[in-house]
Known about the structure:
Elements: H1 8-114, H2 120-139, E1 142-145, E2 157-163, E3 174-179, E4 181-184, E5 187-190, E6 192-197
Parallel strand pairs: 2-6
Antiparallel strand pairs: 1-4, 3-6, 4-5
Helix pairs in contact: 1-2
Amino acid sequence: xxxxxxxxxxxxxxxxxxxxxxxxxxxxxxxxxxxxxxxxxxxxxxxxxxxxxxxxxxxxxxxxxxxxxxxxxxxxxxxxxxxxxxxxxxxxxxxxxxxxxxxxxxxxxxxxxxxxxxxxxxxxxxxxxxxxxxxxxxxxxxxxxxxxxxxxxxxxxxxxxxxxxxxxxxxxxxxxxxxxxxxxxxxxxxxxxxxxxx
Length: 198
């Protein structure tokens, strides 16, 4: 009954207050829904950013791995190229020096033939040529394989024939050299052809 006795102004205020109370929860619900939607969008963006970051880190790591692999391959290629170049140079030098060995053989034969000769100029000239050629080849790494009086060694000697040893101590030893052997920088260029005591 008190509500009927109310002043119309008061009644209007009560109605407005009730409407306000009814409208406020709806507004708050809408606001909360908007904020929840924004939060959900932000979470999606954060998840996408995390995924992009992980993808970027994976790509960076893969790039680093590819770079290291490429550098290792390049280093191997560079080293192999240098080795091939050195091998080519040394084999070219070996071939050139191998081609000069018959000249050395001819000089040695000429020196042996001239030992009994009375022509001193020929002896001196032949020795001079042989010494100069041998000195030059020694600077390039050529060395004579010493064979006479040494034990027969298949790493340096090639047996042409066996000959009965005049003494027991010469069995298995090199008695004579048929063709001089040479090494080039420690590697056999030509085996010494020898006669072995049997």
